[in-house]
Amino acid sequence: MSKPYLGVKDGQLAACPSSPNCVSTQTDQQDKKMDPLPFSKDLETSKQVIKEVLHQMERTTVETETENYIHSIVKSKWMKFKDDVEFYFDEDQQVIHFRSASRTGYSDMGVNRKRMNGIAEHYESMRRK
Q1: Domains in the chain: how many in total?
Q2: Is the whole-model pTM more than 0.85?
Q3: Which residue has the higher pLDDT, 105 or 31?
Q4: What CATH number is associated with residue 87?
Q5: Is residue 6 in some structural domain?
Q6: Closest to 72 in 3D by CA, of 93, 54, 89, 97
Q7: How far apart are CA 89 and CA 92, in angstroms?
Q8: Pairwise CA distance, residues 127 & 40, whole Å
Q9: Which pLDDT tens digit goes with each residue over 29-82?
Q10: Position 10 in a domain
């Protein structure tokens, strides 16, 4: 991966910056912390459900996929800003960690948290089918 702020290193996604335009399940910053998603049966099923959720989102492309990681880019509707949305599938803990961060700007007006809440809701409804 060419971007140093992307990917999983030692079981951790990159830290959120100090600016308020990032959320993560692995941050110590309480204002940016979110809960990880539980696995849906197993690794493969969980990945498949996340990919299905991403596929149904507008202006979203999956850029990288490995055995336990997915990186997608979401473009904003009007200004075409790019946000990085990453998922780390932790088989030991049976959870999906995620990080959603704006590439540019300072504040995101809560967009990353709102997006990840939406993804979490959609994931939960699909995994229960």
Answers
A1: 1
A2: yes
A3: 31
A4: 3.30.310.80
A5: no
A6: 54
A7: 9
A8: 6
A9: 999 999 999 999 999 999 999 999 999 999 999 999 999 999 999 998 877 889
A10: no
Q: Which two tokens mark 9?
A: 């290193």
As a whole number of angstroms, the distance between CA 65 and CA 59 comes to 18
Question: What residues make up the domain containing 58?
Answer: 19-127
Cβ atoms of 46 and 39 closer than 8 Å: yes
pLDDT of 87-102, one tens digit each? 999 999 999 999 999 9
Q: Is residue 61 part of a domain?
A: yes
- The token pair at 101 is 């961060």
Q: How many Cα atoms within 13 Å fall on the side-chain side of residue 2?
A: 1
Q: How far apart are CA 98 and CA 77, in angstroms?
A: 22
Instruction: Report if residue 8 sits inside a domain.
Output: no
